[in-house]
Structures are given as structure tokens and as C-alpha cells.
Amino acid sequence: MKTAVVILNWNGKALLQKFLPSIVAHSQEATIYVADNASTDDSITFIKAEFPQIKIIENKENGGYAKGYNDALKHLEEDVFCLVNSDIEVTKNWLTPIIHTFNAEDNTAIIQPKILDYKKKTHFEYAGAAGGFIDKFGYPFCRGRIFDTIEEDKGQYNSNSQIFWASGACFFIRKDVFNALNGFDESFFAHMEEIDLCWRAFNLGYTSKYISQSVVYHVGGATLSTTNPKKTYLNFRNSLATLTKNAPGNIFSLLITRLTLDGLAGVKFLLAFKFAHILAILKAHFSFYSRLSTLLKQRKTLPKKNEYYKTKSVVWSYFASKKKHFTDL
Prior knowledge:
Distance between the termini: 37 Å
Helix content: 25-40%
Number of helices: 10
CATH architecture of the largest domain: Alpha-Beta Complex
Largest sheet: 10 strands, mixed
Number of strands: 14
CATH topology of the largest domain: Spore Coat Polysaccharide Biosynthesis Protein SpsA, Chain A
CATH class of the largest domain: Alpha Beta
Shape: globular
């Protein structure tokens, strides 16, 4: 099974300098690509000089994560795509258990490794941890991370497991499945597009898995910090789009509850004097309303499957019931 490790880059020379060496050292069984999103720094010159064995794909524009990967992957012939953020450090034999799983399990379409925090390697990292899930209203959380509570890795998630979504920070998918799903939804630009893709795969009967024997370390927020209101805007807007496209049942009833919960998130930001984030939520909602008719048309064309959520409301569980760990849910 041929594997392509693809790192998306946009003006990230410093990150490439720091993290490419580990990928090159530990990925001998794969072909390594850097997909460049029309960088204006000297990233490409640096790669050509220091890592001539890496293949470069030059996208014509910065289409974000979604379009950037869609544009890059259409050129590749490998059987499995591994999408890796430029701020990921990999470890020895990180590819072996994942490729073994793909070979052994025909219905496993998407895989995520264990993602630990590069800055605090004893703990899971926010964006993915030990595999992702959602609640009934589309709020994502992970084994090892619920909202801002991040668990120490004590081996509690060392069992391989079926998950609902895999983190885009280090995301493996079969080429034929990626193509069958028509790739990422490019309207998302960045954030939540991997959850939308995994949900669409789930609704078609494919399985996503977490493989604990593969370990990577993620800086997180290297491209867009968690304190940046733009990240809040993209997460809230794209989460609503994902829910509308993919959730079964009465979508309008679901959306009314979800929008109310988003309002409570706005109150939380208000109490923390984070006014820019309140504005980001409002902008996200207005953007969602403007796209609602398009999303509803997409919804009609996509299959639906029940039992998609781990818990009815992770918001209630976390803030009201004080359940801070995945195993408490």
C-alpha cells in the first residue's frame, strides 16, 4: 500500500525548518510532499535546497486547509493520504501500525494517531487528542479533551478504538474514499472541515479509527491561535454548516437549540470581557443564515445515519454536571 505524507504550507518556513527533519527521518515507507498554498516567503527555495527528496506541489492560491488539500491531492496516485500540519513532530514507526490497520480492515477509511502536546508532552493536545466525537448539537470533543480541559496521557486511551472524527492535524484517509466524498467542503476554508468529511464518511457506512501505537506531537495554534477571534468565527460558522448538512431528523428543531447554546457561549465570552469573540459568533451566525438555503440543498443530496453522537449535550455535561473527562460522559 503506497502512502503519501502531505504537509500543507503557507509562509511557514520556520515551521518546516523545525519539523520536517522528524518527518523525513521516520517516513521512509512513504513519499513526502509539501503542498504550498502560494507562499510569499522562501519556503519553496528552502525545501529545494535542504530536502531535495521532498516533492513540491505549488497551489495557485491560498485556499485554506480545505481547498489547499483538495487542489494538492488531485495530483497524487498513492493509496493512502496522510495530511500533516506543518507543526507536527512524528515519532519512530509512526506509520507502521496505521498502514497495518488499513491493510487488515477494508472498511476502515480514516485513521488518527495519538496526538500529544509538543509543548507539554505528558498531555494530550487540544486538536484531536485520542480521537474525536460530537454531541447531538454538533459540538466536538475528544477522548482526552473536552472544551478547555486537557487530560494527562496516563495510558487511559491506549486501546485502539472506533471514533467519529479524526483530527485534521494528522489525518489519514484512503484515496478512493476521499475521492468518493469529493474531498473537503471548500466553503469551510479552515476548521471543522475534517469533521464534516468524517461525518459524510460515517453516513456512507465507513469507519474512522484511533490507533494509539502511532504517536505524534502537535504544537497547535501555529497558524491561527486559539485566542484569535477569526478561529472562533470559523469554528462556530462551520460547525453549524456541518450540523445542517449531515444530521438526521428535524434539522430546524436541532438548530434552534444549537443557536441558543451558541448564545450562552456568547454570554460566557461577555463575562470574560472577550468582546471580539462575541462579535465573531454574531458574524458566524449571519454568515450561516446567508448560506442556509445552499446548505439545505446540500442536505437533500447527502445520506443520513442515526446514532451519530456520543452524548446528547456535552455543554450540559461539562458546565452543569461538571463532567470534565471523556470517561465521565
